[in-house]
UniProtKB/TrEMBL annotation:
<dbReference type="InterPro" id="IPR035979">
    <property type="entry name" value="RBD_domain_sf"/>
</dbReference>
<feature type="domain" description="RRM">
    <location>
        <begin position="5"/>
        <end position="93"/>
    </location>
</feature>
<keyword id="KW-0694">RNA-binding</keyword>
<dbReference type="Pfam" id="PF00076">
    <property type="entry name" value="RRM_1"/>
</dbReference>
<protein>
    <submittedName>
        <fullName>La-related protein 6C</fullName>
    </submittedName>
</protein>
<dbReference type="GO" id="GO:0003723">
    <property type="term" value="F:RNA binding"/>
</dbReference>
<dbReference type="InterPro" id="IPR000504">
    <property type="entry name" value="RRM_dom"/>
</dbReference>
<dbReference type="InterPro" id="IPR012677">
    <property type="entry name" value="Nucleotide-bd_a/b_plait_sf"/>
</dbReference>
Amino acid sequence: ELQGRTVVAENLPDDHSYQNLEKIFGVVGNVKAIRICHPPESNSSRPKGDFLMSNKIHALIEYDNTVIADKAVEKLNDERNWRKGLRVRLLLRCSPKSVLKNRRNFDGILIDDEMPSYESGED
């Protein structure tokens, strides 16, 4: 449920201080938490495909509930200015399907309905 009430904001304004982001995102409802995420260093040892989030500065904004988070996406996402405008999307929707496809349960075993089937002629 936490992911459903958290939004990811990219193309942040020049003044992306906690207080300024709280003003911007508080317009649609009560903000519970804000986390400003700086990109990893370019000489980092992380593989290129390891980024689930943006490789630019972005913020995670947590709201009280999913209704307010949806409203934030609807009201604050600036689609008219795709180059410089604020981009807001639900955190829930930013995990690529390839990551979810290979998810494992807590024991590290593939979830039953996702088990690969192997056919062999031997018994």
